Amino acid sequence: MAAAILQQRLAEQGVDARVTSAGTRAWSQGATDDAITVMREHGLEISAHENRQLTRELVEEADLVLGMTRDHVSIANARSRHARRRTFLVGELARLGSDVGPRRDAEPVSTWVDRAADARPHRLPLGRAMDEIADPAGQSIDVYRRTAAELDDRLTEIAGLLAGEPTLA
C-alpha cells in the first residue's frame, strides 16, 4: 500500500522517482484482498503486486528506505551497515522533514535525506513509537483503511517535501 501511495503522491507533485516495495517477512502471495480493496477505494490498483524480500542489494541501491515500524527499519539496517542515514520510519521522515524544510531547488534527494538524518537525536534508536504505522496484516479491513489513511497523510507530506513544498504544520 505504501509504495503505491507514495508513487502516486510523488507523480502528482511532478517528482520523477522509482518507488519499490519489499517485505521483511517471507510472504509468497501478492497483496491481500483487503489491501487491494482499500487501495481501489483510494483510486490505486495493486492487484498485480508481487511480494519480494528486502535484500542487501535493494537497501544499498536506494536513496531512501522507508519502513512502517521500528522492526522494519531495524531489519533494513541489518541488511546493510550503510543504511542507517537513509532509513526512516514513514512518520519519522515526515516529522524530521518538516523540521529541516523542503528539498531545495536542484538539491539531490540524498542531500535532503542527509539533512533529515542530521536532525535525529544522536545515540538514540531510530524513530519514536509515535512515528510507527501499524502493519495491518491479518487485521480487519477497517484496520487496513485506517492504515491507508495514515500512510496517505504522511506520504503526502513526504512527497511535498521532496517536491520542494513546505508543509503546513
The major beta sheet can be summarized as: 2 strands, parallel
| Overall form | globular
Structural class: mainly alpha
On the 0 to 100 scale, the average pLDDT is: 91
Query: How many domains is the backbone divided into?
Result: 1
Order of helices and strands: HHHEHEHHH
Radius of gyration: 15 Å
What would CATH call the homologous superfamily? Response regulator
CATH fold title: Rossmann fold
The count of β-strands is 2
Helix content: 40-55%
Major beta sheet, strand line-up: 1-2
- DSSP strand (E) fraction? under 5%
Structure described in brief:
The chain has 169 residues and is mostly helical.
Question: Your description of this structure?
Answer:
The protein is mainly α and 169 residues long. The protein has one domain: Response regulator (Rossmann fold, 3-Layer(aba) Sandwich), CATH 3.40.50.2300. 47% of the residues lie in helices and 4% in strands. It has a two-stranded parallel ribbon with strand order 1-2. Strand 1, helix 4 (70-79) and strand 2 form a beta-alpha-beta unit. It is globular. The relative contact order is 0.20.
